[in-house]
Amino acid sequence: MKPKRAFILALLLAIAGNLQALDLTPFKYCAPVSVEQGAAPYGRLFLTPEVYDAAREDLGDIRLVGSGGDQIPYILARAEDKTTEIKYQPAIINRSTSSRGAAAATLDFGQLTVKNSIEVRTRGSNFRRAVKVEGSNDNIEFFTVVDRAYVFAVGSNTRFERIDLPTNDFRYLRITVEPMLTEESAVALEEVRAFKLENRDAERLSVQMTLLRHDEDANNRSSIYIYDLKYRHLPVNEIHLQVADDSFYRYVTIEGRDAVTRKVKIDSEDNRPRYREVEVRWERMVSDAIHRYAAPDGRRHEKLILRVPSQRTFRYLKIAVSNYDDKPLLIDSASARMIPHQIVFPIKQESDATFYVGASSLAPPVYDLRHRLRRPLRVEARESSMANIADNPLFVQAPAKQLPWSERHKVVLLIILVAVVLVLGGFILHSLRSIKSQQAQNDTSEPG
Asked: 191 and 93, same structural domain?
């Protein structure tokens, strides 16, 4: 009985192992994964741009497989930036309007207060107004904090009213807003708020952007730059611009798309598939402002980093710079930054594994690990690395879904339907004639 029981136990273990084994034929790509030596019970693997390009947009077709063929459970996580904001409501005193139409007001914080940002709200829907910020501790002698910044309004819904300040603890801030040259009425300064912002940025990965085109749009007085990120689905959240000009302030719009053209099927009566190429429309991502200027104390202030939402990703980016009446702004180069996803997985005796990706029809995996590991980014983990993604030798192309017979033979079906209609029509017509003939015979046979 003992040998028989041992055989049954071995059989059950083999069946259990086969149930855990993963079918590798649906995956287009694979890559070996190596884990550094150490005692940490988990491994950590950062996704590369190549992985994003090969994977589905939801990243649900990623699998880790151990040397024994079993799936390795994992948690897919992504770090986030942390911003702490302290909002102040200072008293607004000494409101005034100059003969040029400039509006001024002084903020009194009541005591020395650390701050690095203000929000200036003025009336209007389309403007670009210069702002000067000065600081003082006695409300008598003022020192320049920001010599020239700008607030924007483009239409009634798009406004840029935040101004970054050098970190300072002045009790008083004097704000002066200059009207545009084309404005005839004085600036109406509605509200000024102040903030202290503390940012803790997550680790980022740099992504190269290749310039495809640079055009000057004379009608809209804007400079157009089109870039290629090379990869799809990258969770880019920042665009860094390099500009040679020493002093400027510009309004910028960023749009994106994944392809230049797409195929649209043309309906036809025969069975041959026909398509036409149509241009893919750009989708608006974000609008912001960039600037650079030198303060009287010699310090240079600039903002050349544009934050973009990473929830919707594109391969191609179009950056439009509004120049207004100034000369076109020349962007020397641009680069992107992204916060990559991390795969956190338990390490067993064998530390090496194989990474699989590129299965379009698989459902995302569900592992118990997500219930046991609540904070995957905080666990002690060994750094892991992945070789270049290559074609999976086990990949088998799924057979194309065959269209129904009626779709594949539309012309034949149409001929059959026409024939059926003609036959039925002839039958109905013959029946009507028979009925009328019979009715006529009945009428003549009746006595008068």
From this structure: yes
pTM of the model: 0.70
d(CA 366, CA 180): 59
What one-letter code names the amino acid at 341? H
| DSSP-assigned states of every residue in 335-404 | EEEE--EEEEEE--S---EEEEE--TTPPPP--THHHH-S-GGGS-EEEEEE---EE-TT--PPPPPPPP
Judge if 157 and 243 occupy the same domain.
no
**Mean pLDDT of each 10-residue bin along the chain, 448 residues long:** 45 39 91 91 94 94 91 94 91 93 95 95 90 95 90 84 92 95 91 92 92 94 96 94 91 93 76 81 91 76 88 91 91 95 88 90 91 91 93 81 56 74 79 73 60
- Count up the domains in the chain and report the number: 4
Q: Which domain holds residue 107?
A: 83-200
Selection from 234, 246, 86, 248 nearest residue 167 by Cα: 86
Report the distance separating Cα 198 and Cα 208, nearest Å: 28
**368, 412: one domain:** no
Residues 363 and 308 in one domain: no
Inside any domain, residue 251? yes
Asked if 285 and 254 touch (Cβ cutoff 8 Å), the reply is: yes
Euclidean distance between CA atoms 340 and 49, whole angstroms: 9
User: For residue 194, with 0-12 CB atoms within 10 Å meaning exposed, 13-18 middle and 19 or more buried, which class applies?
Assistant: buried
CA 41, 46, 52, 53 torsion: positive or negative? negative
Say what the pLDDT of residue 430 is: 74
Residue 289 domain-assigned (yes or no): yes
Burial class (CB in 10 A: 0-12, 13-18, 19+), 170: buried
CATH number of the domain residue 228 falls in: 2.60.120
Note whether 95 and 114 are same-domain residues: yes
Residue 9 in any domain: the answer is no
116: left (phi over 0), alpha (psi -120 to 50) or beta: alpha
Q: Report how far residue 255's alpha carbon sits from residue 245's, in angstroms, rounded to the nearest whole number.
A: 24
Same-domain pairing of 223 and 320: yes
Together in a domain, 246 and 196: no
pLDDT at 95: 94
Q: Which residue has the tokens 């990623």?
A: 62
Write down the pLDDT at residue 9. Answer: 42
Phi, psi angle pair for 411, to nearest 5° = -65, -45
Question: Would 422 be classed as within a structural domain?
Answer: yes
Report the C-alpha gap between 143 and 135 in whole angstroms: 5
Residues 162 and 274 in one domain: no
